[in-house]
Specification:
single chain; about 180 residues; alpha+beta; M1 Pyruvate Kinase, Domain 3; 8-stranded mixed beta sheet; 4 helices; 13 strands; about 30% strand; Pyrv_Knase-like_insert_dom_sf; molybdenum ion binding; MoCF_Sase_C; MOSC_domain; Molybdenum cofactor biosysynthesis protein
């Protein structure tokens, strides 16, 4: 299956869900134009409370639509943007990509993956029991966070639903994504 953008979302406020829009503009070094999480330094409230000068490694949040299908099989109803992601994808195993993977969107936009989203209590406030559904254990007993990946914008540009996504892996040795 070819990788593509299913939906794009942004919100100017620190709301949990983000409304879908026709397109988003990625700005190099900052994130999504008009999104509350855009900036060179951290914007997520929990991170700001710890150290507001930290670099923003969470400029763009991506979730694979296959997660929503998995959650639907467990009785949950989740649509693109509702878990706060900016870009909903199809056809990419986002969670198993290494740190430093570059995702090319459309004509020019490039996002570099920095880590995993660490799901928080807000997910259970959205739908009771959803937090447990987005966490799992792998065969070695390690915690698996399924609530998406985070990245930074290397090259700006417009991103729209339906656009293809090219995946460029970094040189080996690869490092697993960890929570950021």
């Amino acid at each position: 299956m070819n990788a593509s953008v299913v939906a794009v979302s942004r919100s100017p406020t620190h709301s949990f869900s983000k409304p879908n829009v026709e397109s988003i503009r990625l700005v190099a070094g900052l994130g999504i134009e008009g999104d509350a999480h855009a900036g060179e330094t951290v914007k997520h409230r929990s991170r700001v409370a710890i150290d507001p000068t930290q670099p923003n490694l969470r400029q763009v949040h991506l979730i694979h639509t296959e997660l929503f299908e998995e959650l639907a099989a467990k009785g949950f109803s989740v649509a693109p943007g509702q878990l706060g992601e900016n870009i909903t994808t199809r056809g990419i195993d986002l969670l198993n990509l290494p740190v430093g993977t570059k995702l090319h969107f459309g004509a020019s936009a490039v996002v570099e993956l920095t880590g995993l989203r660490n799901p928080c209590v807000q997910i259970d406030r959205f739908q009771k029991g959803l937090m447990a559904a987005v966490l799992d254990r792998d065969s070695e007993g390690r915690l698996v966070r399924k609530a998406g990946v985070m990245g930074i914008v290397l090259t700006g540009g417009e991103v729209r639903p339906g656009e293809p996504i090219a995946v460029i892996l970094p040189p080996e040795p690869h490092r697993r994504l960890e929570r950021v």
